[in-house]
Design brief:
Blueprint: H1 2-17, E1 25-30, E2 35-40, E3 45-51, E4 56-61, E5 67-72, E6 81-86, E7 91-97, E8 104-110, E9 113-118, E10 123-128, E11 133-139, E12 145-150, E13 156-161, E14 166-172, E15 178-184, E16 189-194, E17 200-205, E18 210-215, E19 220-226, E20 232-237, E21 243-248, E22 253-258, E23 263-269, E24 274-279, E25 285-290, E26 295-300, E27 306-310, E28 316-322
Antiparallel strand pairs: 1-2, 1-28, 2-3, 4-5, 5-6, 6-7, 8-9, 9-10, 10-11, 12-13, 13-14, 14-15, 16-17, 17-18, 18-19, 20-21, 21-22, 22-23, 24-25, 25-26, 26-27
Length: about 325
Amino acid sequence: MKAAVCLVVLLVLVSTAAGQTPKPALVVLNKDASELAVVDPATWKVVGRVPTGPIPHEVAVSDDGKFAVATNYGPERNGTTLSVIDLDAQKEIHRVALEDLRGPHGVMYWGGKFYFTAEGSNAIARYDVAKNAVDWTAITSQEGTHMLVATPDGGTIFTTNMRSNSVSCIRVEKNGSYKVLQIAVGKGPEGIDISPDGAEVWAANSGDGTVSIIDVGSCRVIGAADMKTKRSNRVRFTQDGKLVLISDLGAGEVVVADAATRKEVKRVKLGSSVAGILILPDGARAIVAVSGDDHLAVMDLKTFDVMSTFATGKDPDRMGWRK
């Protein structure tokens, strides 16, 4: 009888340790744990965990929801791998060796492939899951190439270069050739996003509390906004393009700005080391990683109230969404 009871308990533990990956699903990188957590957005409960390479910082999900790619930044910006994760199997299927591309950080999915920055190599590159290969590289020639965004057609990629106080505007041709234009911005640009209409890029300057606003067509700075942040590190437009959320790692806040007036609308105190921001597909809520407190906050984008919080593990930061 005792053996039967133990078997039942074991089966329950196994079934609850990892559940089927739902659709939709939220994926969260727990940096200090070097893992990706799979979360059911109906309950905000973790249904699976997948080990990654050391100290992953950013993650992107393919449009079909099959794969996630995490950039393994490493403890001293010295990482040299990507973790490719099958979300249905909740398993790392490739640990991609990057050879000369050190310190992979920002990552995005566009046109069937994953694009990522290599901060320690002053470059960006492209990874093809089907071929399990890096098939394109572009050199920014700027120090600390950290985050990246692209225009809707993929023809222009923008990167923040933290230690060069610049944003690179990279015009990419269909044959893979490219031209790089350097844009001087504020001190320590880190977070970056592009407006939903593809007209403006906002780069948050972590070293001086400002945001540089760049015209996509001309690749020139057309304005700046002083958000008085202590250390801004992420920027996200809302789906309607009316608001911009800026996380302030130093102050533990999210600054909400009006995109048209470029003025602060609200400053929301969330806790310690506020970092990654994800706008949910409903357009009505945002999830913000409160990394220093080891939880995430669900924020109402009309009232800016915190609706709930949930935990996924140690030092959560970047998130991705599986449709």
